[in-house]
Design a protein that fits this description.
alpha+beta, 113 residues, Alpha-Beta Plaits
């Protein structure tokens, strides 16, 4: 069992902020990252939204603009450390964030006291 901050398999979201300089190979890089998350059929990518080029509030690594990509995926927890390592080593990624989406449960009726 994997120790650390990731546990279980649940729906997660990911945000990448990429440099706008190397846009030609971005599709290949995203496919490589997706392959890490779906390795051995332990996960699936449910949605990928490319928000496009946006101005940054402050410069990051001397860049004023970045290309945002948001994805929803479900994967096994043991695949996430390898994925994060690959993203950190990619020089085109300015920032990234992965978070776990809690399932929204609607109660049948509100409790009254």
């Amino acid at each position: 069992m994997t120790k650390g901050r990731w546990h279980g398999s649940s729906l997660r979201d990911r945000l990448h902020l990429r440099s706008c300089a190397g846009r030609v190979r971005d599709h290949e890089r995203l496919e490589r990252f997706h392959a890490l998350l779906t390795k051995d059929s332990k996960g699936s990518i449910t949605n990928v939204a490319q928000w496009g080029k946006r101005s940054l509030a402050y410069p990051i690594k001397k860049k004023d603009t970045g290309f945002y990509v948001v994805a929803q995926f479900e994967t096994a927890a043991e695949l996430l450390p390898e994925y994060e390592r690959a993203v950190k080593l990619d020089e085109g990624v300015l920032r990234f964030l992965v978070w776990c989406r809690k399932a929204f449960r609607r109660s049948r009726s509100p409790r009254r006291s």
